[in-house]
Amino acid sequence: MPRSAPRWSSLRPALAALERWLLPGECLLCHAPAGADASDPLICAPCRGRWQSLPEPQCSRCGQPLVQGIDCRLCAAWPAGLSGIRSAVWLDQPARRAVHLLKYQGWWRVSEPMALAMRRLPLGAAHTLIPIPLGPARLRSRGYNQSAVLARALGKLCGAQVAEEVLLRRRDTATQTALTPEARAANLAGAFVAEGAPPPDPVLVDDVFTTGATLAEAAGALLAAGAVRVTAVTFARATRPLAEAATVFGSPA
């Protein structure tokens, strides 16, 4: 009987070694040479150490850093079943560069150190991870969904299932970058639909949290299809005024 083909997981060490031999042994962010004992030179430890965690206290629902005496209004209009979003780091320059490498330059393995930073976020192995889908045109243009790549890396790290076909983006939407929060919500209205019955407690996965409009709309689609409670995790979070104040003034005594 012929031997079965080797599993993909058994090839990963050999492929990683080949990658390190073919490509320069330097960090993709700072371009410093990787040490001789570096197991993965894509993003060096000092650069990962520059990723800044969000300060406490945070809004229990949306994860936005809070300032004493100022209530969080960011998540007031969200669907009731969207109960919690957490982000691993601020979207400052070191984290932004990592997101850019994953999102636009095809460096899929950058998702591994990004997922490692997300591992400390509230996430259980029993949960099902659902990546935010891309629209059809953008998926064809880019060739892959960076949120799905990130969800797979996180799922492997945490032992969680990843369901990429549960949530669909039924239409392409305009780029969100220059839109106000209100315009973002209008741009995304009705953009997502759940395919079949979603798991009862899905966890949405995305690369960046900006205003929460994308996650709120996606959660609404899952809740409408039968999900009981939706949470979400992202690698990075864009800085907003209240968050800046929390960083400057610190946590209340």
Produce the secondary structure layout.
Layout: H1 8-22, H2 45-49, E1 82-90, H3 93-104, H4 111-118, E2 128-131, H5 136-142, H6 146-158, E3 161-162, E4 167-169, H7 181-188, E5 192-194, E6 202-209, H8 213-224, E7 230-237, H9 241-249
Parallel strand pairs: 1-7, 2-3, 2-6, 6-7
Antiparallel strand pairs: 4-5
Helix pairs in contact: 4-6
Describe this structure in words.
By secondary structure, the protein is of the alpha/beta class. The protein has two domains: 9-45, no CATH class; 54-249, 3-Layer(aba) Sandwich (Rossmann fold), CATH 3.40.50. Helices cover 35% and strands 15% of the residues. The protein is built from nine helices and seven strands; from the N terminus they run H-H-E-H-H-E-H-H-E-E-H-E-E-H-E-H. The strands form two sheets. It has a five-stranded parallel beta sheet with strand order 1-7-6-2-3. Strands 4-5 form a two-stranded antiparallel ribbon. Helix 8 (213-224) links the parallel strand 6 and strand 7. Helix 4 (111-118) packs across helix 6 (146-158). The protein is globular. The N and C termini lie far apart (70 Å). The relative contact order is 0.16. The model is unreliable at 1-6 and 245-253 (pLDDT under 50).
